[in-house]
Design a protein that fits this description.
With 699 residues, the protein is of the alpha+beta class. It folds into 5 domains: 5-104; 124-313, no CATH class; 345-432; 450-568, no CATH class; 576-696, Beta Barrel (Elongation Factor Tu (Ef-tu), domain 3). Helices cover 50% and strands 19% of the residues. It is built from 19 helices and 22 strands. It has a 6-stranded antiparallel barrel with strand order 7-16-21-18-17-22. Helix 2 crosses helix 3 (77-89). It is elongated, with a radius of gyration of 39 Å.
Length: 699
């Protein structure tokens, strides 16, 4: 007997497999589904694979010859061998003695001691909790009214009404959402999440049951240790209609959207209290999860299956990814690699674009998950799990593709190899050559000499200088405090009384004993008058230097009360201006005194030149200009610490002297470009990596 696999009989199929006809493909070609009843998985096959199964048991060569003789198909032996490997890979063939021994040894061994076992079960594992088929059938009989068109339209109308009513009281709604972020609120959100996701999965299960499918089990799936409810609706591939599969895939999102709409209406109609809070949690949780997470087609959530059924395109991720990889090899390496499937150019471009968007989305998502995993666990385990995330989801797929490129390197034409080498060298030079000479920063331009004028204490406005140019010593505002004036007048009257009494005591020889006490009281009154005059002098606000008097409220009138925290105006010296700039920690060491600076005020395309005059040696503990804080629409992230705004991450203060004033003569937010020591992108990247490693190396 020959050793050629093409001439050896194919091993028998498992007897528990089921084969059923599926809906035709996009081009009308017939399709079937193989059901693995043990794990309840379904595999879609085409006409060629179906013909192979009809003749299974013969050699692959004989199978291909019979199909060519008896049908319009002209298969190659390689295609039959590929189908056999597919069946072996998914354990759809009856295991022989060697396979049985291998499986038995694996089951009797300590598989859990293998790092591969822990890796697989850490990334994803499921815990079935319910076999709900009997209960679903009973519930479905009593909830038939939910699936009528009338119910759908009523829910849509009520949901839209709730949205409109919330928009009319949006400030209250937004305030309630912000105030709900507390320990108690987070627990309530978690409870609302459980309710919403339970109804979500129940929606999938009920629709599948009404379409005659069996829901094998429901339970909890752990994706990177994050719990998620799931429903096994794998039998949906039995359905020949893509619209029916679409109904099952979209049932969960539609259930959550209905819950969100009704909860929104309930919140708008309810009075403040526990019921309204509960409806708020349900509404916000359902809206966010339905629109932001479940509707995404880039992960294998409901949005992916909905898009697959709308396009009638099974295995959308895998097939579009295969097309994108071939497109990358053809465009970058110039390989004449055959397309995995025949599509029109327009459809192929759409699928390739979808695959690239999926890759980018997953890159950002997996990086975020890796960081979250690192922060969630204690440091050592967090580092290990972070490395696993990066290696498994990002490095390994890239490495597999690069291995394929390396294996096909001899097929790349010489001119293309030279071009790729030149591009690679140019990229390395761009990374390694120190061409970066600028440090970017954010800051606020202000007058070097400026005075913000306030009332020393609540007082009456008597006079205020109009906005404009003032000289040193000019009166900016005159204030009055009636209590001080009344107290001063009382003290002056007391002085006159004590003086008259002293004159009488001096004329009376018997009054010498009281003279000393009266003089002490008289001196006390003099001191009080002097203090009152000092306080009244403080109410005469004068310009300590010449400058521009700005920000005067035009609505103020004489006789109006002014509080001690109300700004009366700002006096600035327009001749000299400085910028308080804030530079990142890993960039500040590149700066030096005298470095040239270009300051771009917001909304101004023309920069103002200047130079560095001071560099802070310690990190900024408090942001002096609230307009730079992200809490007030600024570009710098801050965290509140009492009443202070602390920059996060660490920033250093750099003082810049401008050569001229800003156009509006007011504090102006802007962007700075500071000339600094040359640095390469590669050196910057390595410095940051080593800094992170050094910071995180301490346990």
């Amino acid at each position: 007997m020959t050793d050629d696999p093409a001439d050896q009989p194919t091993p028998p199929l498992r007897e528990d497999l089921r084969l059923s006809e599926a809906g035709p493909g996009q081009r009308g070609d017939p399709a079937w589904v193989i059901q693995d009843t043990v794990v309840n998985r379904f595999y879609r096959i085409g006409w060629l694979e179906f013909e192979c199964l009809l003749r299974w048991g013969q050699s692959p060569r004989r199978i291909s010859e019979q199909i060519a003789e008896q049908t319009a198909l002209k298969p190659d032996v390689r295609q039959v061998l590929d189908f056999r490997r597919f069946l072996e890979q998914h354990q759809l063939l009856r295991p022989g003695p060697e396979a049985v021994a291998r499986l038995l040894g694996r089951s009797q061994g300590n598989a859990w001691m293998s790092w591969r076992w822990w890796l697989h079960h850490y990334l994803f594992f499921r815990i079935p909790l319910l076999r709900p088929q009997v209960h679903l059938a009973r519930i479905s009989r009593h909830l038939g009214w939910l699936f009528s068109p009338v119910t759908g339209w009523v829910v849509i109308v009520l949901g839209l009404t709730g949205i409109v009513m919330v928009l009319h009281q949006w400030d209250t709604f937004a305030t309630d959402v912000v105030e709900s972020f507390s320990t108690e609120g987070l627990l309530s959100f978690a409870l609302a999440l459980i309710v919403a996701k339970t109804l979500h999965e129940l929606g999938h299960a009920l629709v599948a049951t009404r379409l005659g499918l069996r829901v094998a089990h429901m339970g909890i799936a752990f994706v990177v240790m994050w719990p998620m409810l799931y429903t096994d609706t794998g039998e949906s591939w039995k359905l020949r209609s893509s619209r029916q599969r679409l109904a099952i895939a979209s049932a969960g999102i539609l259930t959550e959207l209905a819950l969100a709409g009704l909860s929104t209406l309930g919140w708008a109609l309810s009075d403040p209290g526990p019921l309204r809070n509960a409806l708020l949690y349900l509404a916000t949780t359902s809206w966010v999860l339905s629109l932001a997470l479940n509707a995404s087609p880039f992960m294998r959530f409901d949005g992916y299956f909905i898009l697959s059924d709308l396009l009638d395109f099974p295995n959308l991720h895998e097939r579009s990814g295969a097309l994108a990889r071939v497109a990358l090899r053809r465009s970058v390496l110039g390989l004449d690699e055959p397309w995995p499937e025949p599509f029109s150019p327009a459809r192929r471009r759409m699928l390739v674009a979808f695959a690239v968007a999926t890759w980018l989305y997953r890159l950002v998502l997996f990086l975020g998950i890796a960081v979250a995993v690192y922060l969630f666990f204690f440091k050592l385990l967090g580092i290990v799990l972070f490395a696993v995330e990066i290696a498994w989801f990002i490095v390994m797929p890239v490495w597999r593709e690069l291995k394929h490129w390396w294996a096909r390197r001899k097929d790349v034409v010489r001119g293309r190899r030279i071009m790729l080498a030149m591009v690679l060298i140019a990229l390395m030079l761009a990374l390694a050559v120190p061409w970066r000479t600028q440090v970017h920063a954010r800051g606020v331009a202000r007058a070097e000499q400026q005075l913000r004028v306030y009332a020393p204490y609540p007082s009456l406005l008597q006079q205020i200088h109009a906005a404009g140019r003032v000289k040193a010593g000019d009166t900016l505002a005159v204030l009055d405090e009636p209590d001080i004036a009344a107290r001063s007048q009382g003290n002056e009257a007391s002085i006159r009384g004590y003086q008259e009494r002293l004159a009488g005591l001096m004329a009376d020889p018997s009054g010498l004993a009281q003279e000393a006490a009266t003089r002490q009281r008289l001196n006390a009154q003099f001191e009080q008058v002097r203090a009152a005059r000092t306080e009244m002098a403080r109410l005469n606000l004068q310009a300590p230097f010449a400058g521009q008097w700005l920000d005067v409220n035009p609505d103020w009138r004489n006789g109006q009360w002014i509080g001690s925290r109300e700004l009366i105006g700002v006096l600035v010296d327009p001749s000299r201006w400085q910028v308080d700039a804030y530079v990142q920690q890993d960039e500040v060491q590149r700066l030096s005194i005298g470095s040239s600076v270009r300051f771009y005020p917001e909304g101004q395309p023309v920069p103002i030149r200047g130079h560095v005059i001071a560099i802070g040696t310690t990190r900024v503990n408090q942001l002096e200009h609230p307009m730079l804080s992200s809490r007030f629409g600024g570009p710098l992230n801050t965290v509140p610490h009492g009443e202070a705004l602390v920059p996060a991450p660490a920033l250093f203060h750099v003082l810049v002297q401008l050569d001229e004033a800003v156009p509006n003569l007011k504090e102006t937010r802007g962007h700075l470009q500071i000339e600094a020591a040359r640095r390469s992108l590669l050196a910057d990247g390595l410095t940051r990596v080593f800094a992170v490693l050094l910071r995180e190396s301490g346990f």
